[in-house]
Amino acid sequence: MADIAKLVEELSKLTVMEAAELAKALEEEWGVSAAAAVAVAGPAAGGDAGAAAEEKDEFDVVLTGDGGKKIQVIKEVRAITGLGLSEAKALVEGAPKALKEGVNKAEAEEIKGKIEAAGGTVELK
Question: What is the distance between the alpha carbons of residues 29 and 40, in angstroms, rounded to a whole number?
Answer without folding.
Answer: 15
